[in-house]
Specification:
204 residues, alpha+beta, eight-stranded mixed sheet, 29% helix, 30% strand
């Protein structure tokens, strides 16, 4: 974990972002088996909403490269990756990334997330995203958090709206998803927005 990030997280632990029922921490090499297992069993559930999976994506060597990239990005304050774990048993339920961090006059970043099929629609990711919003504004000191989803991904759209994001645009052929350029709905949350009741219940 970067020295920039350490000590800035608004929780009792300098290694975790803590929600109501989940906590987030940076991925580690020891997570490979549980991560690969969850991703493999959720493949059909996730593929329609993600970039094309490389053939070796679930291998240990690929995961090691992923961890190395995450470490470099956090050390340079370009992005932060987290795994989302359930408090009651430390089960890995999904992942969340903050990317494209811009400082200066912009002070913004982009949010992405995924959840394993068995944990979907159980409010774990809503909890994680709400905790992350607080971290972005109070921990990283950013002003604007952006997110996007494919228009047909109703679950993701509802999640963002529930947490308090505002839908503010429609981008044609915005990202290449599962081998095809797909339109996306664009969302934002800025530090001056009123907090939703869901977010208020997740703030420290």
């Amino acid at each position: 974990m970067s020295t920039f990030l350490r000590g800035l997280i608004p929780t009792s632990s300098s290694d975790h972002v803590v929600g109501n029922n989940v906590y987030l921490r940076p991925p580690e090499l020891r997570d490979w088996e549980s991560w690969a297992r969850l991703r493999a069993e959720s493949r059909e559930f996730l593929v329609p909403w993600e970039p094309t999976w490389p053939r070796d994506v679930l291998t240990q060597s690929s995961f090691r490269q992923r961890i190395r990239r995450y470490s470099e990005e956090s050390q340079n304050d370009r992005g932060y990756a987290f795994f989302v774990l359930r408090k009651e048993d430390d089960a890995l339920v999904g992942g969340l990334n903050l990317s494209h961090i811009h400082r200066g006059v912009t002070q913004s970043c982009s949010l992405g997330y995924w959840v394993g099929k068995r944990y979907a629609r159980k409010r774990y990711m809503s909890d994680a995203v709400a905790a992350t919003v607080s971290f972005v504004f109070h921990g990283l000191g950013l002003h604007r958090l952006e997110a996007a989803c494919v228009p047909t991904n109703e679950a993701s759209r509802r999640l963002l709206m529930k947490v308090g994001f505002t839908q503010e645009g429609y981008a044609r052929e915005y990202l290449r998803i599962n081998g095809k350029w797909r339109d996306h709905l664009l969302f934002s949350y800025v530090s001056t927005d009123p907090r939703s009741q869901y977010l208020l219940s997740s703030e420290p």
